[in-house]
Amino acid sequence: MGRMSETPAELLRTEVRRDGARPFLTFYDDATGERVELSAITFDNWVAKTAGFLTAGLDAEAGDRVALRLPAHWQALAWAAACWSVGACVVLPGDDGDDGGSEGPDGVRVAVAGPDAVEAAAGSAPEVVGLALRPLGGRFTTPLPPGVTDYAVEVPGYPDRFVPLTPPDDAEPALEQAGTVHTLGGLVDRARQRAEQLGAGPGARLLVATDDLGTALIDALLVPLVVGGSAVLVRHEDPAGRARRVDAERVTAAVA
Asked: Among 35, 60, 140, 157, which is least packed, fewest CB within 10 Å?
C-alpha cells in the first residue's frame, strides 16, 4: 500500500520527471510590467540552488525555522519549496510583522526579507538574507545593512540538484502561520482539499491574483503540484487586464 501522504518536494520531483519542460509558474507584477515564466525544471533548479545555499551556505538543517518576510513572488515560492526540501519550517510573519525571530532553540534560524523589509529584518536572526525581487533575479543596487547577505549574489554558485542526506518525513513541521503549524504531509492534504474546493482537475492552469504569500503558497504552488497543473501568479493585479490575461495564458480557473 502506498503512503497516505506525500511531501511537496516529492510532488515537485514527480512533476519534473513527468513533463519538466512545460510551464509550471508564470509570474506577473502589474506594477512593474514584469513577466517571468518558469518551467518545472527551471523552478526546480531555483529550489535546488536555494536549498544548497540554505544548508551549505547558511548551515540550516531539518527542523530549523526560516522566516519569510516576502510578498507573493516567484522567488518566495522557490524559497518555501527549498525549505521543505531541506525539512525546515517556513514561518510567515503575523499582521504586526512579528515572526518570533529571537535567537535560541525555538527561534528563527534564517530570516529572508524583501526590499521593503530588509532593514527591519537585519539582526533578527543568526542569518539574514535579502532579496531584491528585481527582474531576472537581479541583485540589490544599493548597499545592504551589515550582516545581510544578498541572495542574488550567493545563490548562482550552488548546484542545480539538491538531494538531502535524509529526505524529510511528511510529519515534519512545514509552515507556521497565525499560531498554527502545518506538517509537510498536512500541507499536501490541505492543497488537495483546496483543489477540490476550486474544482481544479488534472492539468488545471490557475490564475492567482494576490499579494499575500500565504495564499500564493497554497493556490499557486501546492494546488498545481497536487493536480499536475500550473499557475499564473499576479501581484499588484490590474483588474482591467484580467480577461486578456486569462485568454493569453489559457487559464482554466481564476481563484482570486
From this structure: 157
Q: Is the full-model pTM beyond 0.85?
A: yes
pLDDT tops 60 at residue 109: yes
Mind listing the pLDDT tens digit for each residue in 40-97?
999 999 999 999 999 999 999 999 999 999 999 999 999 999 999 999 999 998 744 4
User: At residue 103, does pLDDT exceed 60?
Assistant: no
